[in-house]
Amino acid sequence: MILKKAVVAGSTGLIGSRLVELLVAAPEYSLVVALARKPKAKAARGKLQWRKADFDGLEMVLADVRGSEAVPLDVFCCLGTTIKVAGSQDAFRRVDFEFVVSLGRWARGADARRFVLVSALGADPASRVFYNRVKGDAEQTLGTLGLPSLVVLRPSLLDGDRKEPRSGERFALAITRPIRRWLPKSVRPVLDIDVAASMLLAARADRAPLLIESAQMHEAAARLNA
Questions:
Q1: Partner residues linked to 77 by β-bridges
Q2: Which residue range is the domain that position 116 belongs to?
């Protein structure tokens, strides 16, 4: 087995925290670097390291983390906020576009083998919806960076227990959870663990697809453990 390194941005969020757990348990990773606004120094254990998420200074923060033929590097981006949490459209775009692209540029320069991004259902740079447009812009820009392998996941409504509840999401889940099984998989709320498992499965694939739609993510955790 060729051991690998992993870098996770958005590591304390709903998907990122799940992904960090999976990567730490995955035998093929010898180092998992979790980027966070407030690094959990005391929580570091074994191959897990917490580092400050400074997207204007990633070269310094991740100076010792590079990919090579001997030790490949996978970069996972789980960054995401809302306009309400961010405070403005400009602040939202800074996180969901500028930080995402900065990570992509660093990954390209660090010879990352694969870049796996959590985007959103409906992401489209031509969308009239600001949220979807920013997500689409990020996807499109990453596609121009020359990354060796880019995988984009577009999950539907995320189903999980957030540390910072979002009222709109909570309301939507209250409506859809009781009828979950009858909803088309393409729009059915997807479990946080299934999104995280889909990211790890994409990293493990010899030839990962460019795009993974929400319908393909359901039961991914079961497939990961099969």
A1: 9, 117
A2: 4-225
